[in-house]
Predict the 3D structure of the following.
Amino acid sequence: MKKFILLLFLIKLNLFASDIQAAYAIGIFHENGLGENIQHKRVTEQDYNGICFSKIVIFGNYSLHSKIDVKVGDSLGYYVSKIPIYNNYKIKIGDELTFKHNNISKGYFEVKIDGKLYDTKVLIK
């Protein structure tokens, strides 16, 4: 009985485990699909107001119960879709996630996973 409880406890711990290597903001787009790549930038070239979409990439494994917060200024992003990323050997190394923001104002692009800040360097106009 003790072994069963221990096994059950270890399985439960592995279900909620995450091994996130990195998470980055990679793009922001208008509702019509036009946008820009924000990697290696400090400030965006275009002004983004109203409804916009943002893309982030997460390298590593994260659980389905992870709380992913993507904010642009005061606008919290809502999850839209996910695309898996594979290396040359067909091994999954991460995911590209798309989020929808409704009322964007000027502010920093923040990527938080389970309360840990991963990226916040880009200022969105």
Q: What stands out?
A: Strands lie at 19-30, 35-37, 50-61, 68-72, 75-76, 78-86, 92-104, 107-113, 116-119, 123-124. Residues 2-15 form the longest helix (14 residues). The helical segments are 2-15. The chain is about 10% helix and 55% strand.
